[in-house]
Amino acid sequence: MEKLEKELETKWVLVDTNILLKAARNPQGFLPIFEIIKKTKCQPVYCQLIRAEFLQSVWQPELIKEMENFLTDLNIVDLPMKPFVKLTDEVMSMSRALRARKKALPDLVDSYAAALVKQYSPNLILITENHKHFAYNLKRFHIWPLDLSEEEIVTVGFYKNK
User: Fold this and answer.
1) Does residue 86 sit within a domain?
2) Segment (H or E) for 147
3) What integer pLDDT is reported at residue 115 of this predicted model?
4) Is 13 helix (H, G, I), strand (E, B) or coil?
5) How far apart are CA 94 and CA 104, in angstroms?
6) For residue 1, is pLDDT > 80?
């Protein structure tokens, strides 16, 4: 855990949609991760694409407000996607490299998340449960299994730029 704390110290942590969705359903289960983020003086962040993907999971206005409050309660703030054209160029570059290796392309949100990690490197770490979309573009440096219930164990990966 000491190595993880050292890596995280005073950085930003981009929280992927899958983590937000599961943490909203089971905040207690993800508490250890958010506690270490706070302990290491990290700033949890999302980009607007992740926020939109997170909020589109619900459609009732009261649930949307509840999800927005969840982001506020965890002090997760917006990370600017600037300049957007530069990010898009990076997404296209990563896509060409994956196609050249005959690898499946990640969805658009994951592509932009990887591009953000590269742009803000070394100050931005990604936490996600989706390991296959980031294996070729980013370096996983820590795995944290969470036992959420009798039926659900998730493995959170911490990724940084290669």
Assistant:
1) yes
2) strand 138-147
3) 92
4) strand
5) 11
6) yes
Q: Provide the 3-class DSSP secondary structure of residue 89.
A: helix
Kindly compute the dihedral angle of the four CA atoms of residues 110, 78, 127, 26, in this order, to the nearest 10 degrees.
-110
Is residue 127 in a domain? yes
For Cα atoms 12, 112, 42, give the angle at the middle one, nearest 5 degrees: 5
* Inter-residue contact 135 to 114 (CB < 8 Å): no
Q: Record the tokens describing residue 19, joined without a space.
A: 């983590």
Based on the structure, what is the number of domains in the chain? 1
pLDDT digits (tens, 9 = 90+) for 79-118: 988 888 788 888 888 888 888 888 877 888 999 999 999 9
- Predicted confidence at residue 106, as pLDDT, reads 81
This prediction has a pTM of 0.91
Domain enclosing residue 136, as ranges: 2-11+25-161
Tokens at residue 143, please? 């795995």
